[in-house]
Amino acid sequence: MRWFARRLAFYVFALWVALTINFLLPRLMPGDPLGGILQHLSPSQIAANPGIIKTYQTLLGGGNQSIWQDYVTYLHRISHFNFGISTSNYPAPVSDVVGRTLPYSIFLVGVAFLLAFVIGTVVGMAAAWRRGGAVDSVLVPTFMVLGAFPAFFTALLGLYFFGLKLHWKK
Questions:
Q1: What count of other Cβ atoms lies within 10 Å of the Cβ of residue 146?
Q2: What is the C-alpha separation between 109 and 114, in angstroms, rounded?
């Protein structure tokens, strides 16, 4: 039971650190999300509605509060699964964007898991069957080296070779 409590405390702490970093990063970066939304509007639209900037600031969670009050508001919204308005798919709520894309992500993770399980099992069986053979001495270390690369780098290599060199297309 102590092991479970320690693990739970670690994961709660890790979640808090991740949420805090997620809160601080956009505030420490140059520019703001409001500028990204306003660039889609013409100067005449902004001039015709002088309160539009204040309205967008309120929608995006900004305001004239201190950073500590903003942080408490942020944690409150996150705890109620209110992730706000998407700046890239404005004015859609973030929960709608996640809801639309989550099934595709789950499908991709599922396919990747099944492929990794099948390939790993087959290679492991072949390496165990012919111990010291080509599979055991060449293929297993090669897969271990490939597994050490970050996933985004492996994906870029896959795009380069399958898309650009082999001309595989949709």
A1: 11
A2: 9
pTM of the model: 0.58
From residue 45, give the alpha-carbon distance in Å to each of 48, 67, 87: 5, 30, 18
Q: How many alpha carbons fall within 13 Å on the CB side of residue 55?
A: 8
**∠ CA 110-116-121 to the nearest 5 degrees?**
130
Residues 6 or more apart whose CB falls under 8 angstroms from that of 61 comprise 70, 73, 74, 77, 84
Chunked into runs of 10 residues, the chain (170 residues) has average pLDDT values of 93 95 84 71 77 72 75 90 78 87 94 92 86 82 87 87 83
Per-residue CA distances from 52 to 8, 11, 31, 62 (Å): 44, 41, 18, 13
Provide the Cα torsion 25, 29, 33, 36; round to 10°: -140
80 Rama class: left (phi>0) / alpha (psi -120 to 50) / beta: alpha
